[in-house]
Design a protein that fits this description.
Blueprint (H helix, E strand, L loop, with lengths): L1 H9 L1 H19 L6 H29 L2 H8 L5 H20 L4 H29 L4 H4 L1 H28 L1
Helix pairs in contact: 2-3, 3-4, 3-5, 3-8, 5-6, 6-8
Length: 171
């Protein structure tokens, strides 16, 4: 249990991503008698945006601004003004994610592009830091590296799924 609590607290991106999937699953169970593929896709994609993008990036904003020293140490960096820039970008992404929770495909697509580029770029930076600087800090080489790659992939899959289900109803 201690390991699970430590994992949840040390990687809120993963924790919030999973929480979004769980809540989508609960919503699906509650409407199971009227469930369609379109409603299932909408549940998963909307809660992905709310939790993995919206709340996740709001957390990132708080961690990179209010708890900047702690976050820099966790990543294996020295604190710098760059931390605050990452924080403010995260606030913008978080706001867009919350708006995308109940928005249309085009808004969601535009919203997903930004964290996808950011996270894949961050993953590249983490890998570079592992190779060049030997930075194996938990916030650089741990589960964060994997979620930087995996969470956008899942978002793309969910968005394409919801788009296809929406298209099939309109034909």
């Amino acid at each position: 249990m201690e390991i699970l609590i430590k994992l949840i607290l040390s990687n809120p991106a993963l924790s919030l991503f999973i929480l979004g999937l769980v809540i989508a699953g609960i919503k699906i169970l509650l409407i199971r008698h009227n469930l369609t593929k379109k409603l299932a896709a909408e549940a998963f994609v909307s809660y992905y945006f709310l939790f993995a993008i919206g709340i996740g990036y709001m957390d990132n904003f708080v961690m990179h601004t209010i708890f900047a020293d702690f976050t820099a140490k966790f990543i294996g960096w020295e604190n710098s003004p760059f931390q605050y820039e990452v924080g403010w970008v995260s606030l913008g992404i978080g706001i867009a994610g919350i708006i995308a929770f109940k928005n249309n495909f085009n808004f969601r697509l535009a919203t997903l592009i930004v964290p996808t580029v950011f996270l894949w770029g961050s993953a590249g930076g983490h890998i570079y830091q592992i190779i060049e600087a030997g930075n194996h800090a938990q916030g650089n080489a741990g589960s964060i590296l994997y979620t930087d790659i995996f969470i956008p992939v899942v978002g793309i899959v969910l968005l394409v799924w919801s788009w296809k289900e929406g298209q099939s109803d309109s034909m």
